């Protein structure tokens, strides 16, 4: 029986991960969440975990009360997340938290020699070089959970990565596909949260609306699959059926298709290399009839263009772009800034910040702090 530790258990990916665990009899040793202790405690009881952690330290006492009838050790804060990431006896660390907080636990899991199933984008966006170097040194495998990176990973199975010519990274286009900047000036939070194909958490849904998520995935793909930015092409597939594809040196293209349901990539990452029944609707291509493909609009969606520029500039620029976006999205969700301001802030930061090298976790923390201060100084 496989044993996992899961952080981010109360979010969209986390709850679906637990559904996969229940179906396939996977043992869960530890759970962690940001602040929803009611659901976290319910999950912890259901899976009889040994460790449970809440990131928000103000919720620690409440979680303690909820767990008083168990023998589970109750943890909190970053230290708690890091302990959950490197427990003895776990086969896989599943990281589905949102934000920069996911980076250090990933590094700790790698340091302990534990394989990682990764849904946290910021781990590779901010610390890609550091993370992949550490994983290589420790012979740790990183299994992508993002549907696009999972698709690429699946397409590469049985093929020589050295013969990879290009990655075709697909995007849904989000809720504002083909909209102009003028049409986006007065976008509301509710409109931005209304994704046409996927059910996700609020931050990731806003990132999809700005296409920042595709910019982050572009950066992740560079690190996960060791390709140059110029060998990654972004293509909009409105139906979200082609999850991504790869082109080899002979110009053959292999793509991974499926219904837009995150349980497929979650299950593949956790059970790799097994393929077993998954609780999703099977894909029927004739139900769709036609699949449509378009080029993204880099001018309207500044976040996407800025992320590509950031990874090409290198150093701390991807971290800066990500951290500025995190702060800007939080401000938008709290109705403090307009929708288009998110992209403007990310673009300005990538253009104006002085180069910063990234040789350690402390370098990433420094860049992250500077980027967040930049946003707060602009609003």
Q: Would you write up a description of this structure?
A:
The chain has 379 residues and is α/β, with parallel strands linked by helices. Helices cover 47% and strands 16% of the residues. The chain has 17 helices and twelve strands. The strands form two sheets. A seven-stranded parallel beta sheet has the order 4-3-2-1-5-6-7, sandwiched between helices. A five-stranded mixed beta sheet has the order 11-10-8-9-12, covered by helices on one side.
Sheet bearing the most strands, described? 7 strands, parallel
Uncertain stretches of 5 or more adjacent residues: none
* Mean of residue pLDDT values: 96
How many whole angstroms does the radius of gyration measure? 20 Å
Helix content: 40-55%
- Per CATH, the architecture of the domain at 3-144 is 3-Layer(aba) Sandwich
General shape: globular
Give me the CATH superfamily of the domain at 3-144: NAD(P)-binding Rossmann-like Domain
Number of helices: 17
Distance between the termini: 51 Å
Q: What fraction of residues sit in β-strands? A: 15-25%
Count every beta strand, where a strand is a DSSP E run of 2 or more residues.
12
Side by side, the strands of the main sheet go 4-3-2-1-5-6-7
> Class by helix and strand content?
alpha/beta
The CATH topology name of the domain at 3-144 reads Rossmann fold
Helix-strand pattern: EHEHEHEHEHEHEHEHHHHEEEHHEHHHH
CATH class assignment of the domain at 3-144: Alpha Beta
